[in-house]
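Handoff note, outgoing to incoming analyst
You'll be picking up this chain. Sequence as last confirmed:
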Amino acid sequence: MDTLTDDRIKKGLSVFGKRMDGKLFSHLNSCVHCGLCAESCIYYLAEPKGKFIPAVKVDLISSVYKSYLTFTGKIAPWLVGARKLEEKTVSEMIDLFYGACTLCGRCVPHCSIGVDISFLVRKGREMLARMGYVPQTLQNTINTALSTGNNMGISDQEITETLKWLEDDLRFEVNDEDARIPLNEKGKKILYTLNPREPKFFPLSVSAMAKIFHTAVESWTLSTRMYDVTNYAYYSSNPDDAAVITNRLFDEMNNLEAKTCVLAECGHGSRAFRWEGPNYIGKAYPFEVITSVELLANYIQEGRISVDPGRITEPVTLHDPCNLARTGGIWKEQRFILNRCVQNFVEMTPNGIDNLCCGGGGGQLAMSEYNERRMKIGKLKFEQIRQTGAKIVVTPCHNCVDQLTQLNVQYKLGIQIKTVAEIVGDAIITDKKPKQSSDEKPLNFVLNNE
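Most recent structure output, in case you need it:
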């Protein structure tokens, strides 16, 4: 760890601010140490040590607050457990806030009084980020996005060539020489985003969405300048870096005069841009933002596309990304889609908003120093999947895809892992004339008694 200076300490304490932050200070002072959060945490379930109890993380940031901002903490720190920002304290914060939390939020609904523990962990991460203590492996991913426009460092030429190649494949698959993947076109209804891992490693996800857009006769485009749905600064909790990345997609939406930004299958990317983004940049969006999962559910429900569940007969289960389901409220849509697209859908236990994190969130996949711990907590997900007997696991998030892929190899599950778009792409009927949409109709999915 680099030297902890007075200047760094001052920057870290700036997170508490000069004025009282109502939510921050009320939650810092609310934990009653009942311990109910313990068994909601995958780290504690995988390794039941006291330090992994979520309330301990709350105590850690609360102890710093008490030391610098309360009267008792200043004059009698031992009475309230107050701790200075010393190297030992900071080392513990790095290990627990970055290395022992996926920000899954499962502890929050299990808290007896509703302390937003993941919010406090993010504040702890923000304190570390301001002091310059983001794990370098995570910061490297952010730096790549800041310097190149995407977290994989893909060049404009590479993304353009990849999409043109996928366009040729699309024409062959749908048997239509007019099928296109439109690039940088102004005035389209939808600007669709990508996770950079899709064009780099998972092109079938891009192909599936292109086929769906073509079949739905959608007005859409991709940008080769700014298409990255991810924002790893959400994980580091550096609001300045997060604002830069958010502003780029905001500006590209305005540049291309698109009406709706459709976020590709990415849990944290959806939360970072849709819900946190306006706070990062300090202004509301003049356009609609939805996820591709909502859009696909809308297409099926409105008859924009037709699907045949008889094409997917193997047992299928669903892993819900934490930032999409638990904290984003999107969990019915993917079930609606799967119940229409596959013959045998089997739920994990628990599932939905109480589903166990796969272990890949919170930036864990980017932080190689915590790989052993990440795979240990991932064993819980392996057991969930194994008990379903499923041969296909669907998840609308590429961080989850990556983690499940590694679990598949390590624990020899023998499963296929697919995105929701890939499942819809497998089940779609491309030769059936779709219903036309109205440009004035919002694209948000609303469940109609399904």
